[in-house]
Fold this protein.
Amino acid sequence: MKSAMTDRPDWRILQKVIVPVAGVLIGMIVGSLVVINKDRSLLMVLGRLFYNAAGTWSNLISSLVYTIPLGFTGLAIAFSYSAGIFNIGAEGQLQLGALMTAVVATSTAFSSSFIQVPVALIAGAVVGALWALIPGLLKAYKGFNEIVVTMLMNYIAILLVNYFLEGPMKAPHSFYPQTRPFVKTSWLQDLVPNSDLHYGFFLLIALFFIVWIVLFKTPLGFKIRAVGFNPEGARYAGIKVKRIMVLSMVVSGALAGLGGSVEVMGVYRRVAEGFSPGYGFDAIAVALLANLNPIGVFFSAFFFGALRNAASGLQVDLGVPISFIHIVQALAILFVIASRGLPRQFQNIKRRLRYGR
Amino acid sequence: MAGSVFAMMISQSFLASSIRLTTPLLIGSMGSIFSERSGVLFFTLEGFMLMGAFFGFLGSYFFGAIPGVLFAVAINMLIALIFAYATVTLAVDQVVVSVAMNIFALGITGALLRVVFGAHTNTLLVQRLDVISIPVLSSIPVLGAFFNQNPFTYLGFILVPVVWVIFFRTKWGLKIRSVGENPKAAESMGINVQRIRYISILWAAGFAAVAGASQTVGNLGTFVDNMIAGKGFIAFTAVVLGRFNPIGTFLTVFFFGAVDAFQLNLQAMGSHIPYQFPLMMPYVFTLLAFFAAGSRAAPKAWGTPYIPD
């Protein structure tokens, strides 16, 4: 079992890169074909897409800004999936995390960002973790389908957040449903002056390495992957499967919640209704495109961040509907997932030809 | 307040709105039960209902109501071939493919809506299938609500016994069930597992189209982005809660329809409860129903691709 799980540095690594890149390109071309007309040609759409994504320094920075929340939530989904649990609930965890962060970040009780920033971040992570604990426990001890439970809990979380933003946590005299602005000592400062790129980016990079090390270089990570690979075998090998399942779900929720905290502390510096355009949902595509590998998640998050950034520009410039990015996402995932099944299919065909069946 | 809530709950209009809200869930779940029973987890019901709603709207705009619904069924079945090829032939993870198809549905409906109709879509109305009142029966007090509905609702209610009979009284149903329970044994009995699963998926996607179209062609007369808004997930959950049995599923979806009608009526009565909490009710109740019922009773091969040797 161990040999099957360790990554051998051979042509498979190359395959891991080529397949998703090809998937993305096919997705982009087919997606563009849906939206072209006499006013906008395929090349125009694709060219504009690349230009908006990374054509100028400031476009690239905007793409990185979108990468941050997608990175956190994508990592969250990849982490729990390592233990074989599909956390569809990242959006709810992210939104609730952001809301809890607002409680800390609007408080004037702290005198320095040295304390307030970490407390605000931890608040978001804890709430995300607690929200994910429920489906984790239900999956591990009751055998409930985590996909259904996390999906339902998303709806509940989003409605709860809306309630708090329109009710108890709404800023006084504000027309829009949003909290009071965060106090300055709770801000994640700008990394590049006069842009939305903030220090949360470094936190994300650090977490990529931490998650990668935990998953691939520690005994705990080995146990987590063993549970994901074959829960029955893991149990036979003396691993406490249920505990590992709950733990991986809790960590996943914490990562997603942290993503919400970082986003509101670094970009908006308050929580407003609709602050997340569905990062937690896009994150499912991010994680799947990366084949659930934490390092891959970084590139995949950047790709989807750039795509979202570019597409919102495209809507303004060329009138291309933003739904376009969902077509690209879906086709890229389908391509990656299909590539896992195709080799066996080719062998079947070869065998049939050989035996004349 | 309590008195008026009670009066609302036994009124004909409450029953009527419960039935109306049950309709898409009922048609969607009666179709997807085929896929589930054959062992293929049809978590993409949401996406196929959304596409059904859109293509029903599109077809109805160009060809009229009934051809429009058939158009949606045809398109959905074509798109379902991708799902079936990936999950059955390529035998890859059914949940992942489902998630991808759901995202695809969101993208293709949103993009095509604007590509075909331009930016001003909110005023577009299409021909609808109107309410057909059944003489005599529709004038029964309260229960008359069942006989004063649009054709989609009648179809949904007729489907329940039909699906039950197919599953438990026909050879075809037995084949589907055996493929979902033990594909290896089914294969050794000479059943073509892959073919049964393909057909079950197409059936599920076709009825998902009707379920979705019931929202545009039967109900609203127009299409709004992401208008299925979780109804497909609720219907999916209802099949699990109804223990993959048409009768159990029917009772579950009717319960959800009633909860939804209850929360809408509660809001309309001008209660002081913030609107988010009534809106939350269908999801909270689904979750609670899960706690109560558990999730045993699934077909043994549910969610597992079958690879013939």
Notes: Residues 11-293 of chain B form a domain with the ABC transporter involved in vitamin B12 uptake, BtuC fold (CATH 1.10.3470).
